[in-house]
Amino acid sequence: LAPWVPVVGLEIHAQISSNSKLFSGSQVQFAAPPNSLVSFFDASLPGTLPVLNRRCVEAAVMTGLALNCSINKKSLFDRKHYFYADLPAGYQITQQRVPIAVNGSLSYSLYIDNKMSQMVTKTVRIKQIQLEQDSGKSLHDDTRSQTLVDLNRAGVGLMEVVMEPDMCCGEEAAAAVRELQLILQTLGSSQAVMAEGQLRVDANVSVHHPGEPYGVRTEVKNINSIRFLAKAIDYEIQRQIEELENGGTILNETRAFDSKLGCTVPMRDKEGKQDYRFMPEPNLPPLILYDAKSLPANMNHQQVINIDWIHERLPDLPSVKRKKLVEQYGILPEHSFTLLNEDGLAEFFESVVKQTQMKPKKVIGWILKDLLSYLKQHSLTVKESPVSSFLLADLLNLLEKKEISSTAAKQVLAELWKGEGKTPLEIVKEQKLELLQDQKELEQICEAVIDGHENEVILMVLG
Amino acid sequence: AALNGGLRSQVSAALKEGRVAPTELCQRCLALIRSTKFLNAYITVAEETALKQAEESEERYKRGQPLGILDGIPIAVKDNFNTAGIETTCASNMLKGYISPYNATVVQKLLDQGAVLLGKTNLDEFAMGSGSTDGVFGPVRNPWSYSKQYKEKSVPKSHPEDKESNWVITGGSSGGSAAAVSSFTCFAALGSDTGGSTRNPAAHCGVVGLKPTYGLISRHGLIPLVNSMDVPGILTRCVDDAAVLLGSLAGHDPKDSTTIQDDFKPFELPNLTDVSKLSVGIPKEYHAPGLSSEILALWSKAADLFKNAGAKVVEVSLPHTPYSIVCYHVLCTAEVASNMARFDGLEYGHRSDMKDSTESMYAATRREGFNDVVRGRILSGNYFLLKQNYEKYFVKAQKVRRLIANDFVKVFRSGVDILLTPTTLSDAAPYTEFIQEDNRTRSAQDDILTQAANMAGLPAINVPTALSERGLPVGLQFIGRSFQEKQLLTVAKWFEKQVQFPVIQLEEVKRHDSDVFQHQKSASFS
After folding, report:
1. pTM of the model
2. DSSP 8-class letter at B340
């Protein structure tokens, strides 16, 4: 059988972390009482007009720069029309013709095999980033034949990040999304928490034989976590392969991922091709951005956005942070990934290193194996750790000074997890775990043991 | 005080000096509204709130602290502007009973300066039309239908008191506002102008109708027809008053991103005496098919007036003028289709009882809420916006729009200061004749002289010029350079002084205020 080449592209919607919405002054807040964060504009009251939120533009510029994009100094807003209960105006304001950023790239790494022994780095091209409005939420109450509409989310700013179909499987997509998530969180442009709907991923999947043109693609939606993303994509790839091998065809359709069944199913309400009747948004002039060269002299800098100014103030991205960790502490690249993957773990590690004489290369083991596995077992975040960096450093110092053995240290740590406020030294004394340094004392103990077990000693001597 | 006196020169002075009280002015206007009810100019009369505002104004005058020239001045607002607490209907079933929670910026500005809001005026539904005949509250009647001047010229009817006799339309779509100003029920009114909707009824009703430069006055709160062409319009009885209103309304609004950022300085109009440095352009394409010989003669006479006064009068060409109607049709309907998408019955406005599904509820709501004109434009607009048609129609129309705008740029760059054109093809038609053709046909015909200014975003003004042979008003239009309202209004004021357009002789007005006829000039332009 000829091999199949799966092709995966992603459309990611990241909610912008801002105080107010993209085009109106109402607040952005998760889980507020229904319809409590809705301005006249959000409710599409006739006569209201959009006013662009500066912070949202800055977030998009930051993200574009972090993803190596060209920032378009002039970008445009458009209306995308369709009727739906959660879209009060009957159109969404988006950027279809000229988005704010284009032609970037994202590098991500993943383990080559299940043994997590070696990492490989891949790149996915970023087609574009566009600013657009989020829709409200509608809940279908079938028992009462009604639809409940909550417009709190309507108008919240989104960055749509389009990743080209450079990925080949669920694992790659998951790794790419994870890296994007870290970047967004580092920048602060989005909190990117999937469970709170701040990061939504749709996957475009198709398969073809090498050398042949790309196959028909399906769009997979309703994916609520990175883990499900990988599952959904891999399922869909398999489904398409099986379908084609059985002589069937793939429909260009939208499918929803059913997390309970672990499969994708066709979505009923997306029948037929929608013509969105795109039209320029007449109430918003073109968005003009400046850089150091093009910035006019007399311009009030409150009124303009300077791309170079933003660029200079970008924080270290995850890839840079990892590199620095590897260089500074001599840890493995894989270690740096795990450190950054857990919120607060890198800071914890660095804090421990500062407070102990133990070499970072040895500290890392304690962090990644002992600390992290304990946290995972108990579903705790680093911030919730009952063992502070101070306590762990204290413990590691005892080990380093050879006052206790490695086994004893693990015992002490187990005790520390109880969070009873005892110091490592107190626990060592309590449980008599000190390593004996005194030779004479050691001899005395040995002789006492031998004296107490005469019969066993005679048996041993006789062989 | 003379109801027809200028705001700055007479009414404001009278109020300040205590010769007339704001409450008195308000009462008089309300009474006149009641006795001219047959005009159907008002959809909502806000008696209680108006009187309250008048009382508050009176207090301020007593303390010697009026807010400005507009303090205590009764005004009317077209019913497509949002007014908090007062119904805003757009003359449509879709918004019957709709009470907006906010004031349009222009309404707020007027209220902040102490103006007294008498009520909301009638229009074509959602401002679509050129007759003010196609709203759900019925057509507006031109006050001149009942004027002595018109009655004298028309074939004598058996029942001279019969209000049903052959009354003429106001033009549109801001017919209610034009009629309100024309019949002295208010001192000024807000209209809107997308293709001529302020200037057209101004011409037919014999009042000043100003379309400001796009971006000068905020559209926040004006329910949009075509966002890229709409402007709030100003209707007054003289050019000076239009300048007063402009001064109180213009300027950047952070709520409207299409308003310019530059500071706007209100101005008083100088009394121009020397026009020798003025260059007036006469665009030959405005000699449009269907232009009545009467208006053609008037236009020519006006050009001569400028020439004889020493101005340079030159024929110019705006070659793309003939294409503006179709271009306007495509762009207007496309924006309408988009702007009307929000009327789905969910958040506000009419909602149908149809419950089978959300889609069927949308369809029924929109069928019940919109009239044929609105629905027709939505369907056309959606057609032009379809993916396969977008380039052919919408983008093409945008390009033609650019050409039309460039015509004006070229002409103004060649040394012409101002353009002089007719405003309408003829005087006001009788209603029974007007409704023989459908809205689309009428709009296409009637907008031809006014619409290019909207395409180009330029300021333009109708100045009442003379009475036609039928005794009805005819106006002429001046089109100026972008943001050069001062020059435009200065020239318009000079012209207004030259032509001495007669005051309407309305029985109802005479009963309420005999002063009105005191300052009538005998000389007239026609």
Report:
1. 0.92
2. G
Residue B399's contacts (CB-CB under 8 Å, 6 or more residues apart) are: none
Please report whether residue B349 resides in a domain: no
Domain contains B488: yes
Set of chain B residues whose Cβ sits within 8 Å of the Cβ of A43:
347-348
Range of the domain at A30: 5-288
Distance from CA of A114 to the nearest CA of B (A): 48
The shortest CB-CB distance from A43 to any of B261, B343, B347 is to B347
Complex confidence, ipTM: 0.94
Q: Does the beta-carbon distance from A275 to B386 stay under 8 Å?
A: yes
Q: What pLDDT is attached to residue B314?
A: 98
Catalytic site residues of B?
A: 78, 173, 197
In chain A, how many domains are there?
2
Q: Do A277 and B387 touch (CB under 8 A)?
A: yes
| Minimum-distance CB partner of A49 among B256, B346, B359 | B256
Q: How many residues does chain B have?
A: 526
Q: Are residues A277 and A369 in the same domain?
A: no
- Band (B518; pLDDT cuts 50, 70, 90): very low
**Residue B361 located in a structural domain:** no
Q: Are residues A276 and A395 in the same domain?
A: no
* B464 inside domain: yes
A265 with A357, same domain?
A: no
Nearest chain A residue (CA) to B100: A45
Tens-place pLDDT, residues B179-226: 999 999 999 999 999 999 999 999 999 999 999 999 999 999 999 999
Residue A131's DSSP bridge partners are A159
> Which of A48, A135, A271, A278 best tests the B interface by mutation, with the highest count of B CBs <10 A?
A48
- Residues from chain A that touch B342, judged by Cβ atoms under 8 A, are 44, 46, 88-90
**Residue B9 distance to chain A (closest CA, Å):** 35
Verify that A332 and A283 share a domain, yes or no: no
Co-location of A233 and A89 in the same domain: yes
Q: B103-159: per-residue pLDDT in tens? A: 999 999 999 999 999 999 999 999 999 999 999 999 999 999 999 999 988 766 555
- Facing A284 at nearest CB: one of B257, B341, B386: B257
Q: How far is A47 from chain B (nearest CA, A)?
A: 4
Considering only CA atoms, which of B78, B206, B208, B210 is closest in space to residue B144?
Answer: B206
Establish if A304 belongs to a structural domain.
no
> DSSP secondary structure string, A19-56?
SB-SSS--B--TTPSTTSS--TTTTT-TT------HHH
The type of residue at B74 is: P
Residue A196 CB neighbour total at 10 angstroms: 11
Residues A105, A159: one domain?
Answer: yes
DSSP states of B57-101: HHHHHHTT---STTTT-EEEEETTB-BTTBB--TTSGGGTT-B-S
Give the residue-averaged pLDDT of B83-99.
Answer: 97
Q: Which of A38, A247, A245, A275 is nearest to B383 (CA)?
A: A275
Q: Which residues span the domain enclosing B20?
A: 2-155+163-323+397-517
Omega before B173 cis (within 30°)? yes
Q: Give the three-class secondary structure for B7.
A: helix
Q: Do A83 and B341 touch (CB under 8 A)?
A: yes
User: CATH code at B292?
Assistant: 3.90.1300.10
**Is residue A161 included in any domain, yes or no?**
yes
Q: What angle do CA A182, A187, A191 make, to 5 degrees?
A: 60
Do A228 and A371 belong together in one domain?
no
Number of domains in chain B: 1
Q: Which residue has the tokens 């990644």?
A: A368
Give yes or no: residues A130 and A221 share one domain.
yes
